[in-house]
Amino acid sequence: DADVTQTPRNRITKTGKRIMLECSQTKGHDRMYWYRQDPGLGLRLIYYSFDVKDINKGEISDGYSVSRQAQAKFSLSLESAIPNQTALYFCATSEGRVLSYNEQFFGPGTRLTVL
Amino acid sequence: LAKTTQPISMDSYEGQEVNITCSHNNIATNDYITWYQQFPSQGPRFIIQGYKTKVTNEVASLFIPADRKSSTLSLPRVSLSDTAVYYCPLYNQGGKLIFGQGTELSVKP
To answer: What is the band of B1 on the pLDDT scale with cuts at 50, 70, 90?
Structure first.
């Protein structure tokens, strides 16, 4: 079984709908991240969480919200989806060792289309 | 975090050594240099990281000059399966990676 899973893998929705993307991990990592990727571009950080009680905005948080329900679960919500939120969304996890590099492990991605 | 700049694309042939350079002129003292590989419709996968000088693992080498304003990922004897996009995000003590546009490497037979 994959260490980082995302559901759904594909989703088509309409403008104005609320949608939630879910991420679960079995790696026991404290840190979790949400990124979006647009065609031909790199990944941009939306939100990140270093533990259950810690939520931080990334580069492009407007229009998104997150919930860290448990150490293993981190959800991304689009309260009112708009077409320019059509993208590939990735969840990632990492350890939280201080003063050290922490490799990030990515999920398989969720392809979201907003019509 | 400092931005990174890479060539948009590169072509190579099987069996050749490929060197991909990343520019990070504004790198901070505490930033690590990392490289990730991404195949279509998959999440990025970590390849290698370093702080200075040279680092080598079982799949690649990373060369970092003394001023740390650039880095070079070296892939020895590439195969068709190395066709992918390669990113060089910097990592700081805040635990964040900032990705640039990436280099699309195409390996031909």
So the answer is: low
Q: Which residues of A touch B98 (CB under 8 A)?
A: 45, 59
Residues of chain A with pLDDT under 50: none
Contact A58 B41 (CB under 8 A): no
DSSP class of B51: S
pLDDT confidence of residue B2: 64
Q: How far is CA B7 from CA A93, B17, B21, B32, in A?
A: 28, 17, 8, 20
CA-based Rg of chain A, rounded to a whole angstrom?
14
Minimal Cα–Cα distance from B52 to chain A, Å? 13
Q: Are B90 and B2 spatial neighbours (Cβ–Cβ below 8 Å)?
A: yes
Provide φ and ψ at A84, rounded to 5°.
-75, 5
pLDDT at B94 (0 to 100): 79
Q: Map tokens 């990735």 to a residue.
A: A90
Q: How far from A28 is each of A54, A73, A80, CA to CA, in Å?
A: 16, 11, 32
- Cα B46 from Cα A104, distance rounded (Å): 7
- On whether any CB of chain A is under 8 Å from the CB of B37, the answer is no
CB B22 within 8 A of CB B3: no
Average pLDDT, chain B: 93
